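[retry 2/3] Helix-turn-helix domain-containing protein: previous attempt timed out, resubmitting with same input.
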Amino acid sequence: MTAAADILRALNADEPREALLARIARHTCTLARTDSCSVMLLDDTGERLVLTAGHALTERYRRDLEAQAPLLVHPSGRESDLPAARAVRERRTVVLRDVAATEATWPWRELALAEGIRSLLAVPLGGADGRELAGVLVGYTGHVRDLAADELAAAELMAQYAGTVLRTAELRAAEHATIRRLERAEQQDRALLRLLLDDAGLDGVLDALAGALDASVTLETPEGSPLGRAGPEVPGVPPVTRTRALRRALAAVDDDRTVVRAPLGSSVCAWVVPIAVADELAARLWVARRDGWADRSVIERFSLLLALELLKRRRAVETELRLTRDLAVELVSGTGDERSLLDRSDALHHDLRRPHTVVLAPPGTAPAALLGGSPLVGEHEGALAVLVPEADRGRLAAALAGAAGPVVIGPTVTATDGYPPAWRVVRTAHALAAEAGTTGVLDLDDLGVAVLLLETGTPDGLRRLAAHRLGALEEHDRTRGTDLVATLREWVRRGCATADTARALHVHPHTISYRLRRVAELAGTDPRRQEGLFELQVALMVRAVQACAARP
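[retry 2/3] Helix-turn-helix domain-containing protein: success.
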């Protein structure tokens, strides 16, 4: 009981395992009246004994014993079988009365005799109630002797108690590890709360994550565009070239919302984490370290904060659109008075007195993100009215080049009463571009005479010209079922190239030439001559403007 109490006190004091086992060995020597004692524990495989602690053993013996072949529980032959291995294998106490008298050619016999060991006692550690054994407790004496029954019972009782102590120590170690993890998690939660309260932003969260993991972190859109990065740069992460295996891995991230280890080869390890907002993939997080280690719990905690920051960004864009929508709509529709419009723009910290370029973009375009500025944005008549202050038309065209559908960059306006006519111009131009199948960006500064038509409408003279030159053609097409006007329009669009027009209309070039001759006869002017071509181009343009302007 004294020995058990001493061991229990050491256990409660969180004594290191090796010191605790040495204490058990010392008490075993006292109880079983042995001269020295060793504690051998099974390794992770359960097939090898490792001398972990001892009492009254010389360093030479411990060193020479470890230098021998592995202490196997199931050796290949009797000559390498140890009493300690037999005790574990047979789950019973093994007593060797006289080491020198054993008939087995035991490889360690000479080593034991050199240490002065003559008798040996090996007792399995633990194993009560069918549990797994932890190892073996081995007692040594320097003279040949028979163990008394009370000595044998005390050694076996100590071995069972030692097994219980070892299991308890493992549980306590696991508890301490859990407590440390919980404490770290609490510290991380406090740090995350501070980041949230301090409004650290996306860059601040990425910096904190890189510091917590001592890793390189990169955030990118699902399309692969960078959103931010922090920590030491790891070359090749994220990779520019994406192999088929990597694309499959990223598909698992995008579709299944699972964390994957990116297949980047053996030189570097990176983890890819999905960041979802409202059950929609908003970004991918790359975490890279040379050693490949990654604390998943830390990543998961920071992922929530990253999702929140991305949601805040999205909300900011939506708020900007909502606050400016009514103002932009009233400007282009002409429904607000000048004083009210200026007061509201001042309240939004937007200087409406600066020149603004009127842009028409398809619905769904994110102008603030594309232009990198603070335009006024509103949806009107099924399109997005974007009023860009002090815009560089070249940079504006480049920024909007990726938008779906035709985009029209219209006039630059300096007064509130200039927005409605400018909007009518870009609406008409957009309708013309859409009818012609045009995509990309259309800058009205590049249209030449078309701008005059769009700005001034279709005067009577131009309307009479269109009727005079195209009326007979249109009547011929309507009554005869021909395509003279369509052929003329395609020929002009193709730069007056007969062969290209024929390929586009899937007819023979001779057919195009014949139709052009009929156009010249009916229109009263030859499109193959410069003056005739100009008049017919103007007539076609007037007809297009008339058709678009007539739409509701």
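[retry 2/3] Helix-turn-helix domain-containing protein: Confidence is low (pLDDT under 50) at residues 548-552.
[retry 2/3] clearing retry counter.
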